[in-house]
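Entry 14. Structure prediction run on the chain below.
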Amino acid sequence: MMHSLCVNVGSNGTDVLVQAVCNIADCYPDQSASFSNLNKMSLSEWADTDVPMLGKKSLASLIDRLESPEKLSDELSVLVEKKISGHDRAWLHLFDRAYNQLRIEQIVKCPRIAFIRRRSYGLRGTNGTMFSHRTDKYSAILVYDPCVPENKPRTIFETQEGFVWDIKPSPDGKKLLMSYKEENDLPFHVWEIQVDGSGLRQLTKGNYHDFNPVYYPDGRIVFCSSRVESYSLCQDFLASALYIMNGDGTNMRRIDFTTLCTSAPSVMSDGTILCTRWEYNDKNIFSWQGLWTINPDGRQLKLYYGNTITIPNSRYGGKPIPGTSEIMLTMAGHHLPPVADIAVVDRSKGIENTDAMRKVTFETPYQITKGKTWRDINWGPGDRFYPWSVTDPWPITDGLFLAAFGRMNKNAGSGRFGISLAMYDGVRFELYGKPGESFFSPVTLDKKPPLNAIETQVPVGPGEGTFFVQDVYQGLQEYGVARGQVKALRVVRPTPKKWNTEGPRFHDHYPVVGYGSYYIKENLGEVPVYDDGSAYFRVPSNCELFFIALDKDGKEIQRMGSVTQITSGEHASCVGCHDDRMKAPPLGPKVRNLQGNPPDALKPPPWGLGPFDYVKHVQPVWDRYCVSCHSGRSPKGGVDLSGDKSRFFNMSYDHLIQRGMVEYYYINPGPTGVFPAMGTGSYVSKLTALIESKHSKVDMDDESRRRVYAWIDSNVQYYNTWDMSRPHTCGGRDPWNYVKDDKRVTPEPEPWLQDFSKVYVASCISCHDKGPFSEYMQVIAEDNHSPRLTKRERRIMCGDCPENYGINLSRPEFSHLLNAHLSKEYGGMELENPKKGRKPLVFKDANDSVYQSMLKAVQKGKVALEARPRMDMPGAIAIPQERNFGKVF
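Output returned:
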């Protein structure tokens, strides 16, 4: 079927030409897009601009792509020699003929294909978790030969109520795997069908989402699944990981032990599995979505490309390009389906190098970017949705690929998608499209060259593996770390999230863990680093791990900003810490001797194994050394280091964090780059300097120091459990509010807080009239909050503000909100900060009626908290929540 750019052009007049090319752009989107990409201007811009001639250079480039360019090349030379006007139709005619000749030459290289018909893209939400969202209804799978366009596509599968997400062909091109749900409220499962439409069978079952399947070369199937039985940390959705099973669905095994989400696997020529992994180990929660490889037995998990790229947020769905060492991917946003531009990655240029990734479609303004510094948090420009753009690339050869291209005017809203064959310079040719319908997930059905299959068995259960680090100083010395400075490695295990985000968040957490870490992390202990920088040690297998390099005092020299894993019986090794992955230093004699010795066992911390626990591990240090000065009605320097309970944590935790005494990383948004050596955590915290300077002549013992440093380097984790005794309140920990019967309903203020709010509004609001706390006090006092919280009410109810630790629920008489204006004579702080010309209220003593009314309200709050202890208190009772891993949100 020939397509012509020139059929509607009836005049050389500029006004008529402008209208004509607008019609052309609507009728022939692939031709007009190819024109625009080659000439760096749209057809309408060309028609409306005084251009000397139509892209002589780009038109010559198009003609040079032809297998028989001679005739058209001669015609181009004539146009140039005669200096034909840039608005003459002859330029369009020549472009049109060159385009259609190239189209014929390229389409013969395209084998028979299969693709999906849907009404729209149909999936929603963050690309890592969109499998658990509701989808549209209706899908069909079509088979088509673009070399015989007169034979229309043949439908081999159709569902009115269900939804097909993606398809993948078998190596011989005779079968297809698909992610398919039979009804909208059911989970995805892996299904298989012959390309002639016969042999439909379901391969996975159960109340789990199984999706993104791909054939492994030995006949097994790799897929993603919510069988991990955990949740996304920052969203109301499910986590996922890679699994492998036999071709008939039996012998299912997990191979990827991520605690977040893995998606869109494909198989590389060497038999490794390429996938997109979303992680955020104390890093920006949006943009750490790089490409990783892993063996089919779960061994050799390695970063392939792009953990620190910020634009786009996600390097989604990488696929190897046949005959090359490059891969093709979708440049995806974070909160949105992967519809944007297509790019090619050549990792030989560097696994974090933006120059290694180049766009091969040009539908979006995305420019491949990474942060200017490691602290850069600028992720937003990489999280955009361009519904007219491109998705589902399928590479055919070096320079030629299939994809689903949007068919719409960029300013007119959403439109259909069609299947096109595209070249790397933006030239593309529509293979199939139809008004009012959309088509996705094109794949070729040719017989593929055999790929290598890594023949190993997947370990059935957890056990141990060993890590060998050759020289930790490889990659650290350039930051100034001296040999001999690193004495040990701490091994940390982030734990999978046990409960879903079903309540209002505090500090973007539910349940809240602390001001920094989103994870409940376990300190598994330490292993020695030897004088030559080497370490050889055993660790638990089949779980997520990361390491922290420590100095002689237990301070963090280098934090691993990513994660790793090891399978049972695996022996893994690395060169150093943040070393150049493209280089390998020689194996020295000391290292060879070390490998002849048994691996070191993890040495538990003196305070015991288990999750980092601020109340259990750190608070005793302040109780021993600090509270004699830093507690009470008027703590020294206004810093309260007692263990008294605040709204979400305790006083010492809140005061140290809110006063900037510790270096931590809030990750929404957070750092996008690699942590620098000696530049993070305990090594640079103000609190560390105070401890080491023996502040107030306090000479802290070594173990106490190490407790504090370990807590800081956990990214200031407070809670030691995902469990909640107050589910569905703010952050799942809030004693200021309650919910009826622990159900997912709008929280109500506790009666004591209602009493407090009335006094506060009557006596304090005239000066303290700004901020979420004061706004919330007014809402409560007036009893006019909505049955369903508005966005504003949710913001002020769960606001991060000083008043959250201004009320002391252990010793109400020490509440800052009471003692800030209590006279010094009576032991208060007597703060005088006049506002709006008003003299601040001063309580002469604790018998003041306003003081007493507020105190009595807080005392009731203490009783209420003790009646239902929080999880950081003795006697707390965890309330179980729903755990449904086939849920559709």
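Confidence is low (pLDDT under 50) at residues 6-23.
Filed with the rest of this week's runs.
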